[in-house]
Amino acid sequence: MRVVLLGPPGSGKGTVGERLERATGFPRISTGDLLRKAVREGTPLGRLAEGVMQAGGLVSDDIVTGIVRERIAEADCRPGYILDGYPRTAAQAEALRRIDGGRPEIAVELDVAEETIVSRLSARRVCPSCQAVYNLRSRPPVRAGACDACGAALVQRPDDRPEAVRERLRVYRDRTAPLREAFRARGVYRAVGGEGEFEAVAAGVLAAVAAARSAGGEKGRP
Ligand code: ADP
Ligand code: ZN
Fold this sequence. Notes:
This protein is of the alpha/beta class. The protein has a single domain (2-26, 79-215), classed as P-loop containing nucleotide triphosphate hydrolases (Rossmann fold, 3-Layer(aba) Sandwich). Helix content is 49%, strand content 14%. The strands form two sheets. The protein has a five-stranded parallel sheet with strand order 2-3-1-4-7, sandwiched between helices. A two-stranded antiparallel sheet has the order 5-6. The radius of gyration is 17 Å and the shape is globular. The termini are close together. The site of zinc ion has 8 residues, from loops.
């Protein structure tokens, strides 16, 4: 089984994906996290991706597909895996079908209005040391400005600045949202409201995935 998490930036894919990972045991593969790690470590790939990411654009299909291809070849992905942030373009969706097309899948899109996204992302802060994520309104750290887990000073992601957020939303609308139709045509698309309480949103996603797994997508074919 493969779970594809769709949803605009700031829709909560990361947090929901972590919950789903614990519930299913399937590893969550976040291309954004993998790219940010490469940037932090200053690898050649990271140096290539950094500028594009800061501006809110898309890293090239070949690069991202290469990362995903390597990751899903690992043994822990054999029973199933969760994709958070991939595919994001038609070319990536095609590449995924070439790499691992036979696997049953479900695509769950978190539905969140643009105003909500802009307000969430402007309040998001991250720990540069342990990567914990906070929100000044809905999930503030205990001590203002400091990470609960490790005490480091929290920062804003460069691509959470307003100009970059606008670009990311535009990219989502133009390049990623159209993928819905292909998933829908294959009968594997589900939309889940992403605006409510986190627990309710997570429960909606877990229920959609559980239904897809028991519908037989699992049997015999991982
Ligand atoms: P969000 O979903 O909140 O925009 P992510 O952490 O998923 O954030 O991604 C951050 C950035 O990483 C993207 O804006 C883009 O530059 C890059 N990125 C992540 N996944 C992909 C992908 N599949 N294709 C191209 N670029 C990607
Ligand atoms: Zn920390």
